[in-house]
């Protein structure tokens, strides 16, 4: 739920800043870039926060090697992608890369839901709502990548 809150809050606040006269945020496209960047800062940082990191490592499907390395690598990619979203000349490529990253990481969410794992002390999000949320995140990334 925190990633969704970050996306919506970041987008709305950026759009309001644009309407208040911040030229770089004047429009929905730049506001979406800020919202998605904030979401990836939140999720990327979670890859390194000790209690959440442990839960993320457990989410990695057991068939994949070196789950610690995978969690570190995806966390770094999320944080680099967040920065890339904020740079107009790299935003489209960053958004496309992040969309692909989200698709590649989705099996970890499926694995967590099927195995009844917890995340941050709470049960993993059930697969239906998690799939809908992931589809929204990917759609936003694609809108940035292919949008105005």
UniProtKB/TrEMBL annotation:
UniProt keyword annotation of Transmembrane helix present: yes
Which Pfam family, just one, is annotated for this protein? Answer: DoxX_2
UniProt keyword terms in alphabetical order: Membrane, Transmembrane, Transmembrane helix
Coiled-coil regions listed in the entry: none
Bilayer disposition of the protein:
Multi-pass membrane protein
Which InterPro entries does its entry note? DoxX
Residues spanning the membrane: 30-49, 93-112
Primary location group: membrane
| Location of this chain's protein in the cell | Membrane
Q: According to its record, what are the GO cellular component terms?
A: membrane
**Mind telling me what this protein is named?**
DoxX family protein
- Annotated source species: Micromonospora peucetia
């Amino acid at each position: 739920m925190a990633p969704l809150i970050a996306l919506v809050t970041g987008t709305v606040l950026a759009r309001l800043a644009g309407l208040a006269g911040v030229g770089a945020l004047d429009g929905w496209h730049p506001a979406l870039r800020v919202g998605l960047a904030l979401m990836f800062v939140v999720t990327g940082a979670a890859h390194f926060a000790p209690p959440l990191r442990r839960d993320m490592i457990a989410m990695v499907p057991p068939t994949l090697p070196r789950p610690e390395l995978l969690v570190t690598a995806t966390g770094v990619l999320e944080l680099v992608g967040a920065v890339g979203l904020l740079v107009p000349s790299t935003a489209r490529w960053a958004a496309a890369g992040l969309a692909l990253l989200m698709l590649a990481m989705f099996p970890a969410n499926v694995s967590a839901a099927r195995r009844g794992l917890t995340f941050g002390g709470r049960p993993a999000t059930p697969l239906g709502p998690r799939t809908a949320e992931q589809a929204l995140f990917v759609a936003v990334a694609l809108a940035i990548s292919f949008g105005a």
